[in-house]
Amino acid sequence: MDARSQDQRFATTLAHGLALLRCFTPFEPSLSNGELARKSGLSKATVSRLSYTLELIGLLRFDQEARRYRLGAASLSIGHPLMAHLTVRQIARPLMQSLADQTGGTVSLGLRHRASIIYVETTRAHDAGDFRPDIGATLPLLDTAVGRAWLAACDDEERDNAMEWLAREHKVTARAVRVTINTAIDDLANKGYCVSLGNFRPDVNAVAVPLKERFRGELIMLNCGVLSSRMSAAQVARSVGPMLKKTAVGIERLQRQSEKSGV
Q1: pLDDT in tens, 36-69
Q2: Would you tell me the crossing angle of helices 88-103 and 241-261 to the nearest 10 degrees?
């Protein structure tokens, strides 16, 4: 159990309600109370009260015919203030789109949350195929290029915190992932980017780099994923890696210009 749950200031009911919202995914957009109980580990009685309350305030919507819940439109409003102030999204979008068009892939910006990276911006080629991650998509730290680049670029305190979450959520030990992390650190130091060549999805090869400018103290990651049917692993590592580095430099230059102009 999270140590914070033992803190008298910790609102357990609120945490449980938010845990229910996190149960919904693009692959499971609708869930019954029984499924919510199984996924969250909460009792059916607790889930029933929470889902009813979340429906009343608009964060969930109940399908009477299917007897299942879906996320309500109000859930979008929670993340809007964050997205509105993450101005790098608007600054980076044209350069990201250009890279996506050149590679035929998907280019994304991500922030780390616990043992994952969450995409906050995504652009893609018009014919990117079925590889279409979107804003809000959650990717694991260890198996993805964007996660490995974060592990390579973060400081020791951040890495230790991430390892705690990996151990808590995925039962991963530092010793078990030491080779992966050390390889990522070496790749970032020597090549300037990290790779995941079919490790997360067998049909996708990806490269990632960190941006120099942090957002409220958090690393911002830039990732490009390309279907293996479009470009081999060797091509992605050899060609897309340098292109991604150049795109990152361009984004950082635009960030500096924006700061000077006060935009």
Answers
A1: 999 999 999 999 999 999 999 999 999 999 999 9
A2: 160
